[in-house]
């Protein structure tokens, strides 16, 4: 039986704005398994982004636990969490987050520079990642010379270049038309199948759900439903 890559236990994040308390994430317990595509769905404001921030250690829970690949994120210091993020996690955002003055190849290389990889290793990984998303011929283009879908593929290549165990994508198709969005989802799907990466996609887009192995639905910060693709998982679901 496989063990989970991320274990989430009774996870809660309360924000205080003025005198009001917002339970952005409320008592969520679930496991994320390696080599699966997980969708976290729910309306705007249901806590999806907060959840991603918590499981990647960008934000700290008010209470509860996140165990990432056996390591307790919730009790790590800032530096340790940063290192874990850099080594194990790739991020893909709705707004792509590319630097406008850099070429596609340079953008993909940014997280590799942050990890202080040498130039030869960087070049090899950039080439590998860009060819993986089918954009080697656009390596020298700047973001404004690329379509929205191409920009998102560059962002996926940038996440992939660090060879992460987990890719976290926050509404990655939110700025794309539905057929372009479909291609991005196919690409994320292939990452799971061919590269063995765990992909967590946050979305309120119904077509993302068709691609996922597991769908966790949030409402008002609570996990209200978990659905599995039929006959895929031998492990019994939680609850
Ligand atoms: P989603 O990504 O599903 O749209 P979020 O996780 O961004 O939802 O937000 C969940 C809830 O927490 C919302 O009510 C939002 O207004 C609130 N929230 C998010 N971030 C903060 C913050 N930094 N300070 C106060 N409230 C926040
Ligand atoms: Mg969000």
Can you summarize this structure?
This protein is of the alpha/beta class and 239 residues long. The chain is built from seven helices and ten strands. The C terminus is likely disordered.
SSE order and pairing:
Layout: E1 6-17, E2 20-32, E3 37-41, H1 48-55, E4 63-68, E5 71-72, H2 78-88, E6 89-93, H3 104-114, H4 119-132, H5 148-161, E7 166-170, H6 178-195, E8 198-203, H7 206-211, E9 214-219, E10 222-228
Parallel strand pairs: 3-8, 3-9, 6-7, 7-8
Antiparallel strand pairs: 1-2, 1-4, 4-5, 9-10
The structure holds adenosine-5'-diphosphate and magnesium ion (MG).
How would you describe this protein?
By secondary structure, the chain is α/β, with parallel strands linked by helices. The chain has a domain at 35-44 and 78-228: P-loop containing nucleotide triphosphate hydrolases (Rossmann fold, 3-Layer(aba) Sandwich). It is built from seven helices and ten strands. It has helices at 48-55, 78-88, 104-114, 119-132, 148-161, 178-195, 206-211; strands at residues 6-17, 20-32, 37-41, 63-68, 71-72, 89-93, 166-170, 198-203, 214-219, 222-228. A six-stranded mixed beta sheet has the order 6-7-8-3-9-10, with helices on both faces. A four-stranded antiparallel beta sheet has the order 2-1-4-5. 42% of the residues are buried. Mean pLDDT is 91; it is low at 231-239. The structure holds adenosine-5'-diphosphate (ADP) and magnesium ion. Residues 15, 17, 22, 24, 42, 44-50 line the site of adenosine-5'-diphosphate (ADP). Residues 48-49 line the site of magnesium ion.
């Amino acid at each position: 039986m496989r063990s989970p890559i991320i274990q989430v236990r009774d996870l809660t994040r309360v924000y205080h704005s003025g005198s009001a308390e917002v339970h952005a994430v409320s008592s969520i317990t679930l496991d994320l398994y390696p080599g699966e595509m997980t969708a976290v769905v729910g309306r705007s404001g249901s806590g999806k982004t907060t959840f991603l921030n918590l499981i990647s250690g960008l934000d700290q829970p008010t209470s509860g636990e996140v165990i990432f690949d056996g390591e307790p994120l919730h009790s790590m210091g800032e530096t340790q969490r940063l290192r874990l993020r850099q080594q194990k996690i790739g991020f893909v955002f709705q707004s792509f987050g590319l630097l406008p003055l850099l070429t596609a190849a340079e953008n993909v290389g940014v997280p590799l520079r942050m990890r202080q990889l040498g130039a030869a290793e960087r070049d090899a990984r950039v080439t590998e990642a860009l060819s993986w998303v089918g954009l080697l011929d656009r390596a020298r283009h700047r973001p404004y010379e690329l379509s929205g879908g191409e920009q998102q593929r560059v962002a996926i290549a940038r996440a992939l270049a660090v060879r992460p165990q987990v890719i976290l994508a926050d509404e990655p198709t939110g700025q794309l038309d539905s057929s372009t969005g479909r291609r991005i989802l196919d690409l994320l799907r292939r990452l799971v199948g061919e590269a063995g990466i765990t992909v967590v996609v946050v979305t309120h887009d119904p077509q993302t759900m068709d691609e996922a192995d597991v769908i966790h639905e949030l409402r008002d910060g609570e996990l209200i439903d978990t659905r599995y693709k039929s006959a895929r998982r031998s492990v019994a679901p939680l609850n």
